[in-house]
Amino acid sequence: MNADLNNKVKVFVVDYKVGNLYNLCRALRHVGLDPVISSDKKEIMSADALILPGVGAFGEAMDNLHKMDLVGPIKNYVSMGKPFIGVCLGMQLLFTESHEFSVCKGLNILEGSVLRFPNVNDKGLKVKVPQISWNNIYKKDESKWQNSPLKDTNNGAYVYFVHSYYVKPDKEDVILSETVYEGVKYCSSIMKDNIYAFQFHPERSGLTGLKIINNFKEIIYKK
Question: What confidence score (pLDDT) does residue 7 get?
């Protein structure tokens, strides 16, 4: 795109009836973006950047995407190479399948599984699930980190998580950051080509989250 930062770009947030979209939109506006919440397929395909949020059950989310005929448009959009972000459940949906309740097929844009945190940690102590807390994100690859929305974010920075399940990619080269919860080291963000996704909520992660969103804004304008 190589547009001037003062020019407006079309940023669409996919509305598929799962989760609160308004905190995310508020954070996007804070950094100067003008997001539109939409489930319209034509609008989604015309976006300069697309965001798939989500909170809740994997199976219900996939059912909604199918019922609203959004699976194909989302896959097509990603294949166009334009900036795409998944947040929380929106990150998990990108993968092959989830083991929530029963095996449920995801978008299969990335290969891997969505697994539940164990009920007991490696010390035999009961684990509080879901994880609802601030936690650290650690660099998987320095060069990749600096070319992502996490650019200039401190290694070990605190961000906010709310989840019972985490992704396990088949290929580790998509992992951007890792986090440890109750002895489980897991993938907390990914980057592959034009795809960026976070298990944590940048819109609820204070100044660090706003920096990440602003970095994504810069990526949009460079495309």
Answer: 61
Candidates 25, 104, 187, 201; catalytic one: 201
Helix (H, G, I), strand (E, B) or coil at 85: strand
The predicted-structure confidence for 67-117, as pLDDT tens digits, reads as follows 999 999 999 999 999 999 999 999 999 999 999 888 999 999 999 999 999
Q: Is 182 a catalytic residue?
A: no
- Runs of H (alpha helix) within 163-203: none
Mean pLDDT of all residues belonging to the chain: 93
Kindly name the residue from 88, 104, 163, 187 that is annotated as catalytic. 88
> Pick from 84, 77, 80: which is nearest to 49 by CA?
84
pTM, two decimal places: 0.94
Phi-psi region of 220 (alpha: psi -120 to 50; beta: other; left: phi over 0): alpha
3-state secondary structure of 125: coil
Is residue 203 part of the annotated active site? The answer reads yes
- Is position 187 annotated as part of the catalytic site? no
159: tokens are 């961000």
**Could you tell me if residue 213 is left (phi over 0), alpha (psi between -120 and 50 degrees) or otherwise beta?**
alpha
